[in-house]
Design brief:
single chain; 272 residues; alpha/beta; 5-stranded mixed sheet; 7 helices; 33% helix; globular
């Protein structure tokens, strides 16, 4: 869609997920997710410049990547911006934007939500469940590896949190005197289970236990809901999915890979 004329009937709006280290953006045309990208945190001056933008072509280069931009009709006000944030200080900074909606837990229709549930986990679960149906289990393979589930009545069952792939490698590399720092980008295939060098021994220990943990949670999910849906997101989703395909080929085909679950949850809240 980028570089093409946008219809007068399209409701153009931006979604922003404020993560612990970066900003994650999405461009929506009504209910259609058109494009996603990431940026670094932005200073207040850029936020003020964004607030003056009437079209996507006007967006500051710090916000919008240098790609062909759609020819968008001018808007009488700043482009609507919907935010979900896990960083309170950043949330406060963006609330100066004049046409902003900050999504809170209270706006997510899941039942049985507890007060400290992360807004990112709640939105991903809501987006997955409303897209593919409940019961739904969402696995987020990010900095933390999380499991979050809801039943057929859209009631939160709960979940679990543990250190993700990269965090486990980083902890071993930084908190020990002799162990090397392992780079996840170098692991194109499964390491030997019984390794004969230190780097591969770390890979083996972390990867096989994480995959076994994912398998255990999925099998427990199937015991509760044999036809329950499952989706996986997060930066390590592809590598973990590939490992699951090799080790447990009966599990992987039932997992839906979708990196934009949080944005789908935001869309459901905006357009409900």
């Amino acid at each position: 869609m980028l570089g093409e004329q946008v219809s007068k009937t399209d409701n153009i709006w931006l979604a922003l997920e404020i993560g612990n280290s970066r900003l994650h953006w999405a461009l929506f045309l009504s209910a259609r997710l058109d494009y996603t990208w990431d940026t670094e945190y932005l200073p207040e001056s850029v936020i003020q410049q964004l607030a003056q933008s009437q079209t996507l072509a006007d967006l500051p280069p710090e916000v919008f990547p240098t790609l062909p931009r759609p020819r968008v009709l001018a808007s009488p006000r700043p482009l609507p911006l919907t935010i979900a944030s896990v960083v309170p200080s950043q949330t406060a900074l963006w609330q100066t934007y004049p046409n902003v909606q900050v999504i809170t837990l209270e706006q997510i229709p899941l039942k049985n939500i507890y007060p400290t549930l992360g807004i990112d986990r709640a939105l991903a679960l809501w987006g997955a469940g409303k897209t593919w149906g409940f019961p739904m289990l969402v696995i987020d393979a990010g900095t933390a590896l999380t499991f979050t589930a809801a039943d057929a009545k859209e009631c939160l069952l709960g979940g679990a949190i543990l250190p993700g792939l990269g965090l486990q490698f980083a902890t071993l590399g930084q908190k020990t005197g002799q162990l090397p720092l392992v780079d996840t980008q170098s692991m194109a295939s499964l390491p030997p289970r019984f390794a004969l060098n230190t780097a591969q021994a770390i890979q083996s220990g972390v990867i096989y236990t994480i995959i076994a943990g994912i398998k255990d949670f999925i099998e427990a999910w199937w015991q509760l809901y044999p036809e329950g849906k499952m989706a996986i997101k997060g930066g390590d989703r592809t590598i973990l999915f590939n490992y699951l395909q090799v080790l447990y080929p009966a599990i992987a085909p039932r997992l839906t890979i979708e990196p934009n679950l949080i944005f789908w949850g935001m869309e459901k809240i905006v357009n409900q």
